[in-house]
Specification:
26% of the residues lie in helices and 42% in strands. The protein has 152 residues and is of the alpha+beta class. Strand 5 and strand 6 form a beta hairpin. The chain is globular, with a radius of gyration of 15 Å.
């Protein structure tokens, strides 16, 4: 299990997920940079992602949808506020009222490989409480997929 901690902070309206991987920081970044690799782990196994657009640069935008087990589709998008290869990216997330306001992914080299620190920020405690259970479940299901991709 690559996730090493999940921290919910209602005062800061944030959720922080830390995950460690046994690959270089460059390899971890490459998985996020390439939409064909990204769709192999973004989203839980029962709702895989399909990226239709991925302009991974500051000011760029990603568009994708998750496909549910009965063929239903849930569209979403990210607007990249900052992209600094191979260290971090920040994006505004979502198109709905209860979606997080922003997310930051930071990548670091560790003694055993690399670490990803993901911070999601919310607009209110209500949005946070409504979104976190599904988001945390999704991360716990998705991160082993990233681990498997990186091992291949």
């Amino acid at each position: 299990m690559p996730i090493t901690s999940v921290t919910k902070d209602p005062e800061k309206l944030s959720l922080t997920v830390v995950a460690d991987f046994p690959v270089s920081q460059e390899r971890l970044w490459a998985a996020w940079e390439d939409p064909r690799q990204l769709e192999r782990f973004w989203g839980p196994p029962f709702a895989p992602a399909t990226f239709t657009h991925h302009d991974f640069r500051t000011g760029g935008r990603a568009e994708y949808f998750l496909t549910g087990p009965n063929g239903e589709k849930w569209p979403n998008s990210w607007k990249f506020a900052a992209v600094n290869p191979i260290d971090f990216f920040e994006a505004e997330d979502g198109d709905g009222d209860d979606m997080p306001t922003s997310m930051t992914f930071t990548f670091e080299t560790t003694a055993t490989g690399s670490r990803m620190i993901h911070v999601t920020r919310f607009s209110s405690v209500e949005a946070m409480e409504k979104t976190i259970p599904g988001m945390e479940e999704g991360f716990r299901a998705a991160m082993p997929q990233l681990d498997a991709l990186l091992e291949a």
